[in-house]
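Hey, can you fold this one?
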Amino acid sequence: MSGTGTEEAEVHAAQGDGRPPGIDELLERVRAGYPRVEAQEAYDAWRSGDALLVDIRYAALRERDGLIPGALVVERNELEWRLDPRGSHRLPEATGHGLRVVVICNEGYASSLAAESLHRLGLRRATDLVGGFQAWRAAGLPVTTAAA
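Sure. Predicted structure:
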């Protein structure tokens, strides 16, 4: 059994209809909790040194579509372990809870849930890229081949 009965009751009561949220409602709630960024804003923040770009796309998508130069590649299933500043498996880039992280997935859905998870770890400046990698590429921002 996952969670407590109390937690489940609170979720149902918050909805008012007794049903758990669907994914669309959950995404809406999550995204309301922090400002998301557009591709150009993410690029500018990275160039100025104000943000760490983190690509969570799986390998097949990176190989197919390419990479964002300078982005840290962290598979989604490792994200929290690698970016928790207090974690024993953190990356050197996980310098503190004030770190601004822009999470990038393929189209901007999984990254929203990932950013919210980072918020739970205390990374309050974590956000995600609206439209994901596809929006980055459509904006004409730098992309390299995976082999590079």
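The beta strands are 52-55, 72-73, 101-104, 127-128. Let me know if you want another pass with a different chain boundary.
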